Amino acid sequence: MHYYQYNAEDLAADDYFKEWVCAPTPATERFWQDFLTDYPERYYQVEEARRLVVGLQEVPRVAVSDEQVHQLWERIEGSLERAKVPRLGRWPGRAWLAAASLVLLLGLGWWWQVPSVPPLAAESTPSSADWTEAVNNAGQPLEVQLTDGSRVLLEKNSRLRYPRAFAGTCRTVYLTGEAFFDVQKNPQKPFLVYANGLVTKVLGTSFRIQARSQDPDVTVVVKSGRVSVYADKPSPTQDPEAHGLVLTPNQKAVFQREQATISKSLVEKPSLLIPSRPLRLFVFEDATAAQVFEALEKAYGIRVVFDEEVMKNCRLTLNLSDEDLYQKLEVICKVLEAKYKLIDGQIILYSHGCDT
Amino acid sequence: MITKTQNSSLWNAFRGGDRDSFQRIYQLYVKELLSYGHKITSDVQLIEDSIHDLFIELWQSRTNLSETDSIKFYLFRSLRNKISHRHRRDVLYRASDVAHFIESLDEFSFEKQLIEHEGQEQLLRQLKKSFQLLSPRQQQALDLRFAQHFSNEEIAQIMGINYQSACKFIYSGLKVLREAVRIFCWGLAYLTITC
Predict the structure, then answer these.
(1) pLDDT above 80 for A337
(2) pLDDT at B69 over 90
(3) CB contact under 8 A, B183 and A236
(4) Which chain B residues are within 8 Å of A6, Cβ to Cβ?
(5) CB pair distance less than 8 Å for B131 and A123
(6) Which positions 227-246 of A are in contact with B (Cβ < 8 Å)?
(7) Across the interface, do B181 and A239 touch by the CB < 8 Å criterion?
């Protein structure tokens, strides 16, 4: 049959036509354009069929939440963990026992009446019942204590879903809204927070996540420790974490949900990491630039990048104990006639050097 | 979409016991599997249980699995078998369909059709409404064909029916849906409004 005789549903059901609509090549494009030039009266059939094929790529899909996907994975991992431990290992040594019991079982006729339990049904235990949800609609932050000892301070209008017990190889929770996390250290079981398409992975640290469902982006601010953030986008060839960022204290990551891009910058008010008094005193007497920047790096946990060769003659006598990081930088730059920029969560210094 | 070579190297790594590849397979296909599950049954727990069992068995029997260049086909077929196996006890096959049907009829007023007739979005909405009026098997076949891009032969195998039946479900479904995208009908709607 020639395509001229095809009606819309014939065309939509045709492999060659579908290929043109879904993944056009120069050859198919030419073929169908020629067809329409030759038979303009078939335009309606072609257009209707195209609408069917385009529409049907979307229409049958049922929206599936990331949360459902991750919960189901946790459940699968949990079952695999449990299936692994007790069964293997012991079995070979007790094979004779098994054989003996089998004989015994066969002998006892009434055993036939015991309903057989399918092995997989027995394993499919950790279902949605093992998850609970904390919702904070009050004005005050709500403290949630997790079973691993981690604490979550849930801000108002926020929700946190977490398992009653952390099974599997990861500790996974889901956040909508804003919360501060203080995670108990456990290098064997990374702690993962899924929030609006961004995954925040830590071993043990404290940080804040802002992921309001109406906001176009997600922000992660690190207070202590190291945090890795990456987009929740599975790929067949690459580890999604490889496309993420590692954050250190006083850095924050902003994840644009629409474009799925992550950028890194410094927090608005970097705080001092070192509690001990003597190190907090920024009193320098005829110190080299390198000494001053090193002190800043240590105190705030932020990398300072500068050209040691150019600035080798720069010396500073300063008292900066009361200023915050940016004020300190202002003063230092004024004295050294230098400039600074914040790039990628680091401080970059531009200087022409100093005269001796 | 991923290529055939990526597909089979992922599958082979998984068969070799690589847990990361196993997780990647899960993440690549689970949304489509869940979505497809909804075409077979409306029981979400049943869908989740079946996918859970499917992946547990997949991992446990990985060394006995053969080479494949379509993981997706393998997963879809196994899921269909699992769900229908567990489903057999249910006498009322997808009982919620009836409620569903009445609900969609309610929304399907001709007036609405006349007022909102423009744009791609409207087209999709229209198509969605008509799609819900189809039988579960028609929905399944169209999903496999147009959203999952399986061939008619594969669809027949996944659904456990013969080739002719698969083609029939697709074709009869398209025939109904065509009314939702008909150009002539829309032109008429314009006329009715202006007159």
Answers:
(1) yes
(2) no
(3) no
(4) none
(5) no
(6) 234-237, 239
(7) no
Q: What is the mean pLDDT of residues A96-121?
A: 47
Decide if A129-261 and A277-350 have a common fold.
no
CATH code at A277-350: 3.55.50.30
Q: Could A76 and B56 be called an inter-chain contact, meaning their C-beta atoms sit closer than 8 Å?
A: yes
Residue-wise pLDDT tens digits, B109-121: 333 433 444 567 7
Would the CB atoms of B30 and A73 count as touching at under 8 Å?
yes
Q: Which residues of B touch A120 (CB under 8 A)?
A: 53, 56-57
Following DSSP, what letter does each residue of chain B receive, concatenated? ---HHHHHHHHHHHHTT-HHHHHHHHHHHHHHHHHHHHHH-S-HHHHHHHHHHHHHHHHHTGGGPPP-S-HHHHHHHHHHHHHHHHHTT-SSTTTHHHHHHHHHHHH--HHHHHH---HHHHHHHHHHHHHHTS-HHHHHHHIIIIIS---HHHHHHHHTS-HHHHHHHHHHHHHHHHHHH-HHHHHHHHHHHH-
Query: Which residues in chain A have Cβ-Cβ distances shorter than 8 Å to B150?
Result: none
Q: What is the pLDDT of residues A277-327, one digit of tens each?
A: 555 567 888 888 888 898 888 888 888 888 888 888 888 888 887 788 888
Average pLDDT over residues A23-40: 88
Q: Give the A:B interface size as CB pairs under 8 Å.
A: 120
pTM of the model: 0.52
Q: Is the pLDDT of residue B170 over 90?
A: yes
Q: Which domains does chain B have, with CATH numbers?
A: 4-87 (1.10.1740), 96-194 (1.10.10.10)
Question: Domain extents for chain A?
Answer: 3-58, 129-261, 277-350
Topology of the domain comprising A129-261: Jelly Rolls (2.60.120)
Q: What is the mean pLDDT of residues B149-171?
A: 92
Of the residues A59, A124, A241, the best mutation for testing chain B's interface (the one with the most B CB atoms within 10 Å of its CB) is A59
Position B1 scores a pLDDT of: 56
From chain B, pick out residues whose CB is under 8 angstroms from the CB of A239: 20
- Alpha carbons B39 and B135: distance in angstroms, whole number: 10
Prediction ipTM score: 0.73
Chain mean position to CA A3: 49
B78-131 pLDDT tens trace: 998 888 877 654 434 443 444 444 344 334 333 343 344 456 777 888 889 899
Q: How far is A200 from chain B (nearest CA, A)?
A: 17
User: Which of B35, B60, B147 lies nearest to residue A57, judging by beta carbons?
Assistant: B147
Is A13 within 8 Å of B178 when comparing Cβ atoms?
Answer: no
